[in-house]
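Record type: monomer structure entry
Structure origin: computed from sequence
Chain ID: A
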Amino acid sequence: MTSLLLILLLALSQGQAEKAYLTARTPVDVGYKDVEGITAIIKPSVDLKGKIVVDAAGTSLKIQPEKLRLTLRSMETLPSLVGPPTVSQVVDPAGTFAFQGLPESTYQLTTVSGLPQEAYAAEVRQGARNVLEDPISITTDTPEPLQLTIRFGAGRVDGTVQDAEQKPVVRSMEFR
C-alpha cells in the first residue's frame, strides 16, 4: 500500500488582478483497488507579513531596506500550478514585506540578500519561535508576522585548502 498526499487546486480570477489559489490536502492510502469517498477541505492561500529590525547599537552604519530581498523555499514538493518552490520578496523602504498568496505548506527562509558586507541576519522570529532553526508552517490561519533582526559586526573566516602533504590544493575554491 502506498500513501499519497492529494492536493487539489482551484484558481480564482473573478475580478482579481492576479490569480488566487485555493488548495485542499488530504492523505490517501493507495492499494490494489479504487479509492472512494475522499474528503478534502478547500482552504485559501495566505499572506505572510514581516518587518526588518536593525540593531545598530554602537555603530553609525545603516542599511537601506529597499535593497534587501528575502527568499522562502517550500520544504515540500508542490505542483507547479500552486507556485514555484521558492518565492522572493523585496523589502519596502519602511522595512516591511509581505509574501502574498502562499499555499498551505512548510517553508524555510533561505536567503537574505542585499545586506552590506559588515551586516548579518542575526535572527528571524515568528512570535516566540526562531525560524532560522524551525521551519515556518503556513496554514489557513493568519500567520504571525516575521521579525528579521539585522546586526553589524559580522565575522569573517579565511583559509586555504590543503592536501595531505600540507600543500595548497589547485583549483580549490576559497570562500571569504
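Annotation 1: DSSP finds no helices and twelve strands in the chain.
Annotation 2: Residues 1-7, 13-17 have pLDDT under 50 and may be disordered.
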